[in-house]
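thread: overnight batch results

M.L. [08:02]
morning all. the overnight job finished for the chain we discussed friday. pasting input first so we're all looking at the same thing
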Amino acid sequence: MTSEKQSSAVLKILICLGASHLLNDLLQAVLTASYPILKEELSLSFAQIGIVTLVYQIAASVFQPVVGLFFDRHPMSHSLWVATTFTTLGIMGLALAPNLYTMLPCVFIIGVGSSTLHPEASRIASLASGGKRGLAQSIFQVGGNIGSSLGPLLVAIIVAPNGRTSILWFLLFAAMAYMVAKPISEWFAGYLAKAKQQNIRMAVSNQRPLSGGKTIWALVVLTILIFSKYIYMASLTSYYTFYLIEEFGVSVQMSQVCLFTFLAATAIGTFVGGPVGDKIGRKYVIWISILGTAPFSLLMPHVGFVWTVVLSFGAGFVLSSAFPAILLYAQELLPYRLGLISGLFYGFAFGVAGIASAVLGKFIDIYGIKAIYDFCAYMPLLGLVAAFLPSLNKRR
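M.L. [08:03]
and the structure it wrote out:
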């Protein structure tokens, strides 16, 4: 196969992986977007909605490293079909369950689908990247960003006017997910066969670039960076609309437009961050993206409406470029545990975001939303710890 044909084949697989992530996150978003409908039709209290969220978060975040480690040791070419099957069964149950107690297992199954797809598809993206791992991760993650944005919109159009059983229409997206996964499974089956034939491990290298102690230290630093990133992201994704309404008196519709602007910035930043990391190195992208958010975040609580929207776009763009670089840096630390690392970091990111949203909500009730935004503005300064990350470029 010529170099041009190889590049075309790699791009096809990466686009399929991005589409797979889009469809998965779209289906996952159906759950949270349907909360008002579930609350009304099943007569749920807010405490019971909290239980639903807890069950989902446990399955969708805590299980990710477990699933990643399992598939590291027992790779399976049809793993994305397994993920889609879990999600499909959960969506069917969400539409048809007669009460909370029968719905909770369905919610758990939806979370398991997410736990299976994220580490597996991220690992395959790295293996299929053709050396452009940053670009591969960016394509994969942008798909998820788009899917998360489309899910609530489609629930508003399809489910809200027609009731909970109309969630079954989303099975059409599940069918699309099976079709998109077909070329991925075929490529991965060929990769596994070649790896078995040549008796090699499923990774670029099985040689760690750093000693054990330095590897652990680097992972701790990356964990702090994820912590700072997702606390600040949670303050915007969960409460940005409330902040705009309370601080500037804008309409609900205008606040939603502003939130969409922020989410669009995060999608663009995610796409840009990976390729830039391929060119200048992961460490420098991490440093620039997380610490570079501070000027935007620190100014935002002290300006008018228009500049708030402009600064939120800048903050979303710069900050979101960090995650592809963080994930790839971590994968390069342990190149023979791609699934485990992907699961750990996706799971930790989901967990931090969920817990941060709940804690910030409680603090907003006590101190007010303006005070919390003033506090969260300083979170990107934790990006200073990126200075302690060793450079891997010279060790490759």
